[in-house]
Amino acid sequence: MAYTLEQFSADCHRVLTAEPGPEGRKEVCALVQKACADPEFVRQYLPENGPERKILYEDPELGFCILGHVYHGAKESQPHDHGPTWAIYGQAVGETIMTDYERVAPASSEQPGQARPLRDYKLTPGDAYVYNEGDLHSPRRDGPTQLIRIEGRVPKPKPLSLLVPATNTLDESERALGDSVSLLLGDNLRVLVAPSKHYAFSFRGRRFLVLDVHDGKMAVSCRLGDEKNRPIASIVRNHFKPAPGRYQYHAHSDGHTFLVRGANDEEVLSIRYASPAKIRITGRFHLPWLSEPIAITSAEGIRWPGGGLAADMTVSLAQQGQGTVDFEPSGLIQILR
Ligand SMILES: [Fe+2]
User: Fold this and answer.
1) CA within 20 to 30 Å of 202's CA: 30, 52, 235, 262, which one?
2) Average pLDDT of 268-286?
3) What is the pTM of this model?
């Protein structure tokens, strides 16, 4: 009996619900091969006079799409990946020459990426291949072709839960500080400020990190940059959004610490709500007009282009009252209102 679209889509849904990652996609790839090799399926959903692109099915829950493509002549695409998501190409009629690439330099907002061809291979009827996140490829079709393609979808990011203090008991050194909150930049640069509902940091008056506290719970807002100050992600009240092409960065939380890591597990941001009187911060913060990010590290305190403040210092700003902790290129720290 012929494979129907209803069966095909239900099979894909079942597989991807159980295993949304690359292993599940391999199973879906086998289903695409089955559909492509089914003459009745191809006749019905990929008619020769069909449109170049038609959405045959869109999964209401998982968001993936099954598309039918009927190309009436030659068709070629530039090397590309599918951004934050994945795709499966299945050949039903005709031939596709596919080229896989190795990424040489990532794309940025200023210039396109660079890629080196790795291999060419042919998709003939009944063949299907998976292209996972970041897999660069370019299809070329020299004559009429009919194909099935599945496009994944990125699940909508959920904001991470608000941070609560790791402990509500203040240690002796914290009690000794009286009515002030210790903002620890790295491990040894301590900035004492008046207790507030908003702990904000700025450089030359431009804010790069805001911590909002409401009912004992903290929300993080900032923009992150890489070593060259290219944007990585923005965080708005614990809602993490990677910049285009930066989908390898991920945010995590254990309820007390907001962590952002890159593809090699390197840490880009760590905000720990240690106690109601202590918040520890490390990270690389992006301000668009700077040549380097503002870097707060455990070893070096805070650094900005051309300067910084070394670790092993305590700066008390608690007497200046509530406001934004502002750093000037000269090294001056003050509270701005
Ligand atoms: Fe593609």
Assistant:
1) 262
2) 96
3) 0.64
